[in-house]
Write a structure and sequence with these properties.
By secondary structure, the protein is an alpha/beta fold. Helices cover about 40% and strands about 15% of the residues. Helix 4 packs parallel to helix 11 and helix 12 packs parallel to helix 14. The protein binds pyridoxal-5'-phosphate.
Length: about 375
């Protein structure tokens, strides 16, 4: 018999997995380190861990396990609408992590040959989702300091069906200003295109209300905003993400989604996390202080070009340090520290690393380990 692969859709046969940070499980099996011996600077998640209220809620909901979860996630959608303000339950759709929603969006809207605009470097799942559906990505290179050149971007939009934007962008930690976003969304409206705006890290941005476009979904049916419980709420392992959109778009996605995609414990934990104001305040204070500390210390290191950071992670060009990103990653692993080698990002070379902002003790350990390596 010929290879069974011939039965697979053409797009899937050619698909490659996307590389991500946070590969602690792979590192434990490769190095023999225990999970709790690894300091993970490669995944950009809340260094405080989950809210205590979320953990308590999981314990209190263990008796839900024998039942199917609410496939509509009604209580959680209600809680999200209240948390965001300005939108209602009908505007919210839940996913098994925001990654599921990226793929769902592509499944619903992309037909073979459709053009999708993707500024690079950025999060790799947009490209994968587009390719999986037979869409054609058009990559728009960000400027040398990783910003969008608005006028040329608007020109490039011609003929595109979907524009993917990530704000703040992973891995560059750069922010697109509100006015620029509005111009892109309005131009997309004129051109009958959709804007998929990933705000997974927006909650780490100072004055986030000025930059988020969530409240614009009522005005622009072509705008879809993505959020995640992985990052600011530290619930990566539970897999909860959500999208905010015009009710017509949300209900379309609803029809296409897999049923029961968010389990009962994840729903309960997410609701509790949204209600933990004190935890969110502590998180913002910590990230603000520690980002300033980390930026200051990293900028003192010879051979490092440290880019400004609007999110809870920092992009660094280490070319002049004498190390490649892969080499520095391996050396740091000997100290139990995991960083993101960014060479797998389209548009970056082998000299970029990305590090998350963590607690003072962890940040100090990271900086001291770096000094050790670079001075030896
Ligand atoms: C920009 C961005 N969007 C979405 C995701 C996916 O997050 P999750 O599926 O855990 O919600 C990530 C994860 O790294 C990300 O960096």
């Amino acid at each position: 018999m010929n290879s069974i692969l011939r039965f697979a859709r053409r797009e899937v046969r050619d698909l490659r997995p996307c590389i991500h940070g946070g590969e602690v499980w792979e590192v434990t099996s490769r190095t023999g380190l225990r999970r709790d011996e690894i300091l993970d600077f490669s995944a950009n998640v809340n260094p405080l861990g989950p809210s205590p209220l979320a953990l308590e809620s999981i314990k209190n909901n263990l008796d839900c396990i024998p039942y199917y979860p609410d496939s509509d996630c009604n209580l959680l959608r209600e809680a999200i609408a209240k948390y965001l303000g300005d939108v209602s339950r009908e505007n919210v759709i839940l996913g098994n992590g925001s990654t599921e929603i990226i793929h769902l969006f592509a499944e619903v809207f992309i037909e073979r040959g459709d053009l999708a605009l993707i500024p690079v470097p950025t999060f790799g799942e947009y490209e994968k989702a587009v390719r999986k559906m037979g869409g054609k990505p058009r990559y728009i290179r960000l400027s040398r300091d990783f910003h969008i050149d608005l006028e040329s971007f608007l020109r490039e939009m011609e003929g595109a069906k979907i524009i993917f934007l990530c704000n703040p962008n992973n891995p560059t930690s750069t922010l697109i200003l509100h006015d620029s976003l509005l111009r892109i969304i309005e131009k997309a409206c004129e051109e009958d295109a959709l804007v998929f705006l990933d705000e997974s890290f927006i909650e780490f941005v100072d004055e986030k209300e000025r930059f988020s476009m969530v409240s614009e979904v009522k005005n622009y049916p072509n705008l879809f905003v993505l959020r995640s419980f992985t990052k600011v709420f530290g619930l990566a392992g539970l897999r909860v993400g959500y999208g905010v959109a015009h009710s017509e778009v949300a209900s379309l996605l609803f029809r296409a989604k897999v049923p029961w995609n968010v389990n009962c414990l994840a729903q309960a934990a997410a609701i509790a996390a949204l209600n933990d104001d004190e935890y969110l305040r502590r998180t913002w204070r910590l990230i603000k202080d520690e980002k300033a500390f980390l930026l200051r210390e990293l900028r003192r290191i010879k051979g490092f070009k440290v880019f400004p950071a609007h999110a809870n992670f920092i992009l660094i060009n280490i070319r002049d340090s004498g190390f490649t990103a892969a080499e520095l990653k391996e050396r740091l692993l000997k100290y139990g520290i995991l960083i993101r080698d960014c060479s797998s990002f389209r548009g970056l070379d082998e000299y970029y690393i990305r590090v998350a902002v963590r607690t003072r003790r962890e940040n100090e350990k990271f900086i001291n380990s770096l000094r050790d390596i670079l001075n030896s």
